[in-house]
Specification:
single chain, alpha+beta, 15-stranded mixed sheet, two-stranded antiparallel ribbon, 43% strand
């Protein structure tokens, strides 16, 4: 495990920059990166506006780059390794005092207790110290819709790339993800204090703000982490998802936390997560989060980026007495709009995922495996 962690450190030698939660399709050659990831996003949408429908190539400052490659980087930037809005609550199974608790919170607490019981976590006596899982994904880029008020132009075709991932987790808060789709590999991880990500086109990034869990872990793969995330949730009511009547729970990052995640001209305004728990089975059926960022450009334009990811979760199977979701589908939408203009752009993308194997309490897995890349410490002031 230690040698593998050291090999991972040696492969990440790029300059440390803040982690961008959202699209980051860099169209520059390695070594010619823009200073700001948001400039890269703006350039990507500008090129999309200039493309005729069905065009398979676009022109950047350094020549022609296939749109397919840009789209895959956009997919990996949004759906590769997104984080949850808030940190995990230390003890989601704690007793609450109904007398001093709003009805929305006490109802949510009861729903989470039912969820833990339904997944088998309440009766699980064996201590789960770590987890290993493998899975496969298919990422699909759909059309980009560009509207100028009266006219609407749709670009792109539905095309997909297959991939796979390996995920390791050690409680509390340590995880490591390796995701390969097409010819691109994304590596991300957390040592319980620092969350980081490495991509071939943007190097290593460190997340700002509070340490938060990987979204792939909470979408049915680790019920205890999911329950912990909703430990202080509010129950908003009921909603039907497919054929199931569900309770809707909401958690949101507070203002101070989202301000910590702002960087330069990009200001995070809100990040909200909704969980839909089946009234009949008690299981998590759907997960949706919405992330809104405001960017002040050098041209003094104010642009908003809203990224929404909705995940259908299912195919629960017993793994050592715990029900684990083995299949799902995530649909993400990146919506770009300006403060004083009617122009907007909307890009829709999709990921179908399947869990192939889950193993608890892997012998020999240690904290050394979750050490961040060395350049994170080298870049510290």
């Amino acid at each position: 495990m230690g040698s593998r962690a050291r090999r991972k450190q040696r492969c990440c030698t790029q300059t440390l920059t803040p982690l961008l939660e959202g699209p980051d399709p860099d169209m520059q050659e390695e070594g010619n990166k823009k200073e700001s990831s948001w400039e890269v996003i703006r350039e990507w949408f500008r090129l999309q506006k200039g493309l005729p429908a069905g065009n398979s190539f676009s022109v950047s400052l350094h020549g022609s780059i296939p749109v397919k490659g840009q789209d895959l980087r956009l997919l990996l930037g949004v759906l590769g390794c997104p984080l949850a809005p808030i940190p995990l609550v230390n003890d989601p199974i704690h007793r609450i005092h109904i007398k001093n608790t709003p009805i929305e919170n006490s109802a949510a607490h009861y729903i989470i207790q039912q969820y833990l019981a339904a997944t088998g976590c309440l009766k699980q006596q064996k201590c789960m110290k770590n987890m290993y899982s493998t899975g496969s994904v298919k990422m699909i880029r759909c059309e980009t819709e560009i509207s100028s008020g009266k006219n609407v132009k749709s670009l792109g075709t539905r095309s997909g790339e297959n991939g796979c991932f390996v995920l390791w987790q050690m409680l509390p808060g340590m995880w490591s993800l390796e995701l390969v789709v097409g010819e691109n590999k994304v590596i991300a991880g957390s040592d319980g204090k620092t969350v980081w990500r490495h991509t071939p086109w943007l190097g290593t990034h460190a997340a700002k703000g509070p340490q938060r869990p990987l979204r792939r872990i909470i979408q049915g793969l680790d019920p205890k982490s999911t329950a912990s995330l909703f430990g202080k949730a509010q129950c908003l009511g009921e909603k039907r998802i497919g054929e199931d009547d569900c309770f809707v729970l909401k958690v949101a990052a507070d203002r101070e936390a989202v301000m910590e995640r702002s960087e330069g001209p990009a200001e995070v305004l809100r990040h909200v997560l909704y969980g839909y728990f089946c009234q009949k089975s008690g299981l998590l059926m759907y997960l949706e989060d919405s992330h809104l960022t405001r960017v002040q450009t050098p041209e003094n334009e104010t642009i908003y980026w809203e990224t929404t990811i909705g995940s259908s979760i299912g195919d629960y199977r017993d793994v050592d007495g715990v029900l684990i979701a083995h299949q799902g589908r995530s649909i993400a939408t990146v919506f770009r709009f300006e403060e004083v203009s009617v122009q907007h752009s909307r890009t829709r993308m999709e990921e179908v995922w399947r869990i192939d194997d889950v193993v608890f309490n892997v012998p020999g897995l240690s904290m050394d495996y979750f050490i961040p890349p060395a350049d994170i410490y080298d870049a510290s002031p």
